[in-house]
Every structure is written in C-alpha cells, then in structure tokens.
C-alpha cells in the first residue's frame, strides 16, 4: 500500500454499505462486516461479523438474523470448533466439535414450540464416531 494513503483519514458522519472490510498492510482482508438482503419479510437477511486469519479463513463469526443469533469459533481448516446459538423457535445450544468439525459435545435446551419430542429439557450429548451418550433431565 502507498504510505501516503495509509496516513490519510476519512471522516464521515454516516457510512452506509452492505459490506465493509478491514485489511492489513498487505491488503489482506482481516475483518468483514456483512449484511445480506433477504428475499422476503420472513427472510430479511442477516448481519455477520467475521474475524479472519492471515489466510482469509473466518476464525470467529458473529451472526444475527430474524430467527436468532450465533457465535462460531472455527479451526484453521474452516471447520466449526465451538458454536453457541439461540434460535427463537428451536432453542439454545452449544456444540464443541473435533478438528474435522464433527460434533463431539452438544448441550441444548429445545424451545417448547420446536416440536422436539424430547420436550423443553436440558440435554448433553457426547459423540465419538457412531457412539452417542445422552443425558436428559425430565
């Protein structure tokens, strides 16, 4: 980047955009602020903040949409590592995945209107390959 451009400041009262990227000195995107346009009143789109590593892999993500929100911590291979989420009609949960992004630990509470046959009870599930162990409190 040009040193003269690096030192100039842009001052505005309001900046409106659907996408905004912060770049490092080499011009690599390191932070992304994104807003998608939805296709209907039921899907008005989402807002997303991503912190990217030097290889432009989103390592931390914060997303909000009409149904809820989530925070994701991703591996260097762009697989989910840890996800914390809330969905208005489904419930709240945390999942911890292995290095390949396969869920190993899931903790959740279903929303009463979700139709989940387990009901609105907390549940912890441990998974290792095809082996699953769950604990639910009724």
Q: State Rg.
A: 20 Å
Strand order of the largest sheet: 1-2-3-4-5-6-7-8-9-10
Shape: flat
| Mean pLDDT score | 87
Proportion of strand residues: over 45%
Backbone structural class: mainly beta
Note the main sheet.
10 strands, antiparallel
Number of contiguous helices: 1
Q: Please provide the ordered H/E string of secondary-structure elements.
A: HEEEEEEEEEE
Number of extended strands: 10
Q: Which blocks of ≥5 consecutive residues have pLDDT under 50?
A: none
Commentary on this structure:
- The chain is mainly β and 138 residues long.
- It is built from one helix and ten strands.
- The chain has one helix at 3-7; strands at 19-23, 29-35, 46-52, 58-65, 68-74, 80-87, 91-97, 103-110, 122-128, 131-136.
- Strands 1-2-3-4-5-6-7-8-9-10 form a ten-stranded antiparallel beta sheet, with no helix packed on it.
- A hairpin with a 5-residue loop joins strand 3 (46-52) and strand 4 (58-65).
- The protein starts with a helix and ends with a strand.
- 4% of the residues are buried.
- The mean pLDDT is 87.
């Amino acid at each position: 980047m040009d040193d003269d451009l690096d030192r100039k400041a842009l001052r505005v009262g309001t900046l409106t955009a659907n996408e905004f990227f912060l770049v490092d000195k080499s011009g690599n995107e390191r932070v992304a602020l994104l807003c998608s346009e939805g296709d209907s009143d039921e899907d008005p789109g989402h807002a997303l903040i991503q912190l990217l590593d030097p290889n432009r892999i989103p390592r931390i993500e914060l997303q909000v949409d009409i149904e809820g929100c989530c925070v994701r911590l991703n591996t260097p291979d762009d697989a989910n590592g840890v996800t914390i989420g809330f969905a208005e009609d489904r419930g709240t949960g945390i999942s911890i995945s292995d290095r390949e992004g396969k869920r190993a630990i899931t903790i959740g509470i279903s929303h009463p209107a979700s139709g989940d046959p387990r009901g609105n009870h907390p549940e912890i599930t441990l998974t290792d390959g095809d082996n699953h162990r769950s604990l639910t409190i009724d």
